[in-house]
Amino acid sequence: ALTGAGLGWSAAAVALPVEDSTDRTDRTPGALPGARVVEFHGPHQAGVSTPPPAHLSLLGLDLRRGVGAAGLARLMRLLSDDAARLTRGRPALADTEPELAFTPAALTVTFGFGPRIFDEILGGAVDGAKPLPPFATDALEKQWRQTDLAVQICADDPTTVAHARRMLLKDATGLARPRWIQNGFRDAYGMRPDGTTMRNLMGQVDGTANPAATDPDFAELVWSRRPGLTGGTFLVLRRIRVELETWDQVDRAGREAAVGRRLDNGAPLTGRDEHDVPDFAATDALGLPVIDPASHIARARSANPAQRFLRRGYNYCVPDPSRPTGEDSGLVFVAFAADVERQFVPVQRRLAELDRLNQWITTIGSAVYAVPPGCAEGEFVGQALLG
Ligand code: HEM
Question: How far is the CA of 301 from the centre of ligand 1 (A)?
Fold first, then answer.
């Protein structure tokens, strides 16, 4: 249990023992949502297979010029220490607003290393993150480009996220600086029963056909077995803008046809319940396929189950008075896969070739990071790589 030297820790913010459970949230009975702790330490970093909290702030950082392996190790030691403290509801070292740390609200901090870390800093010794090939539908904007590092901060409280971001960036500043920050959100905690699939801003139930932690092949799909990265994973980030102006002009039937699922509960057009298996062979009275072969799910679903990956994206919505909707919205699409080239690229390639959703979505940012395995108490993320 924690002691707070008179600073008044939340009594319910008790760290769980280190173990490899997918859901590491402490649900002490009676605890307020703000007191929920997701253990930072463990064989895998938290923030991948742990349930996605309501708020995301994803930071893309570049190392400052001249920072090499030793500097990166120093940075990761510092940031891992901050993350270990903050996720337990304890202030970071030299925290200027310690009270803001007392509501961890299921905070997770997940670190990723971009391709340059492997190619230049580690001298190609480890088979790490590689850039994605270009896709026909990409319209990438430079401001959302690949960076050296990604820091994914998730929590159920926006103040918690803002405070964690501030502490991490403050401690990083001598060695790295942010290039972009991508904020996002899902349903607020407690709005719906735990485990309810989120909705995106197009109104769709989004995340139904996702590998579940209980699937026998989950570990194989998500956790890397590569030397130096065993127990880690890869994060694919795509910033996808949604044209809500034109989406608004589509009627309900057209919207459902574009995805191949119903809007009311996310069921496939051939089924009744959300988790019914879509029947792509089913035809209607006219002999036409019930699920359009060009629909998003028909194109995204792989016949090869080894081509699945974990989607863990967030909605984004940034005020933009220059647009008729007053906002620039879409998805901070985050996917985790043990092998990006084998699992993600074939699906993205298929969708770029044909997907009815493409009419309303544009990928404006793209990056890939290797997410090193988790660390034990007293260690830092990336320690095995940076030794
Ligand atoms: C399924 C929306 C981008 C891969 C779905 C579903 C929706 C959806 C509503 C059906 C429910 C579900 O199973 O989650 C969107 C939107 C996107 C987007 C709004 C962009 C703004 C992407 C991208 C990829 C992708 C870029 C991968 C490259 C998938 C996969 C499925 C899926 C694999 C499950 C297919 C299945 O097995 O049934 N998406 N998606 N999606 N999406 Fe997307």
Answer: 9
Biggest CA-to-CA distance, the chain: 74
Ligand 1: which of 243, 259, 297, 348 to mutate, most ligand atoms within 8 Å of CB?
Answer: 297
Evaluated on CA atoms 225, 228, 231, 237, the torsion sign reads: negative
pLDDT of residue 7: 35
Q: Which residues pair with 365 in a beta bridge?
A: 239
- Show which residues are catalytic: 206
Cα 268 to ligand 1 centroid, rounded to whole Å? 13
pTM of the model: 0.93
pLDDT digits (tens, 9 = 90+) for 39-52: 999 999 999 999 99
Distance CA(355)–CA(351), nearest Å, equals 5
Per-residue pLDDT, 10 = 37
| Complex prediction ipTM | 0.99
Does any ligand 1 atom lie closer than 6 A to the CB of residue 301? yes
296 lines ligand 1 (CB under 6 A): yes
**Residues 297, 317, 105, 40, Cα dihedral to 10°:** 60
